[in-house]
Description:
By secondary structure, the chain is of the alpha/beta class. It has helices spanning 2-22, 63-81, 94-107, 118-127, 173-179, 187-199, 218-227, 234-239, 251-260, 271-279, 293-299, 338-348, 353-361, 376-386, 398-412, 418-437, and strands spanning 48-55, 83-90, 113-117, 152-153, 156-157, 160-161, 164-167, 169-172, 205-206, 285-286, 305-308, 321-325, 327-331, 390-392.
Amino acid sequence: xxxxxxxxxxxxxxxxxxxxxxxxxxxxxxxxxxxxxxxxxxxxxxxxxxxxxxxxxxxxxxxxxxxxxxxxxxxxxxxxxxxxxxxxxxxxxxxxxxxxxxxxxxxxxxxxxxxxxxxxxxxxxxxxxxxxxxxxxxxxxxxxxxxxxxxxxxxxxxxxxxxxxxxxxxxxxxxxxxxxxxxxxxxxxxxxxxxxxxxxxxxxxxxxxxxxxxxxxxxxxxxxxxxxxxxxxxxxxxxxxxxxxxxxxxxxxxxxxxxxxxxxxxxxxxxxxxxxxxxxxxxxxxxxxxxxxxxxxxxxxxxxxxxxxxxxxxxxxxxxxxxxxxxxxxxxxxxxxxxxxxxxxxxxxxxxxxxxxxxxxxxxxxxxxxxxxxxxxxxxxxxxxxxxxxxxxxxxxxxxxxxxxxxxxxxxxxxxxxxxxxxxxxxxxxxxxxxxxx
Length: 438
């Protein structure tokens, strides 16, 4: 609205100046030598200048792609609306971005456009008033039907989906094919795979625990598999302060197996280090998601990896693919540049340009205008989805996820026992419940 008023005022000034000039003795903007009047129109007006504050937490590995895309948006905005857009963009790492963003929003230091984890953040952010109803925006009508609920709350679309995922763990297809291994369906079968790899002097698992969000990945995988098979009421019980992680302590079986059969010095290995090591064959499997595809393929463009569900027990019904929209982009209701911010969000799913963007990020199609062919690992993951061997990413408080990463780092390092991790996560969940009621 502010921008519209500014443009109207500017147009009025231009018109006033033209009228006054025409009333002067020399005819104001005097006729050209051919007798035609010189042009005075909106295109000669000075462009409006807008700086968008962009916060893209955990997307630092995609800085080049996003910065380039934002520049394309700036060119479009200048050409179509005569607005010069500049960007104040931040790309904090995944370990710190969530807390930084929450602090910013709570203190009023609000980005115009920011990323959030759709599954974790949309419900509490909506309750706190941090999200804008975007249901009437052009991009909303383009979303694939199965994606809409994942970026909605109370029937309102509140974010643009970026990373639509089917994930479990990554495996080196060459190693598996060379040894005749297929992804195991149970924990016992995984133990057999581990032994076969060790017999062939291949390290079974890559460990990269320098960043706590990576061991945290065990939490949604184990809880999700168990809640959708043998412990269906676990999350409900935890949300009502009636449950305990002791009820699903079998989640530690796969964690122990991975930790006991992994690469050395995991606390010296970051996510980027892990991507490079995995791409060069340092281990056969990595409990990690396909969001790292771009980083892996930058090291070896010909590397072939697969995606499979992580076995967590000897009940094959708990071996399931996690499906989710993780990263999504949204706009704060407190943005001082709402019109331009909305233009940017719609440009994220531009009919033509977004095909190239999503392909460069190695993301899945999320829009009906996306015509690119999904990547092989995407198709592999969705074979499981097609067989109903999948679940929607479990709704676990973000504080619990954050704490689980730190606790599982300490668990690997033998600074915390299983019982201490359970006690820690139980308390964190109860604290999150109490905070949500305030």
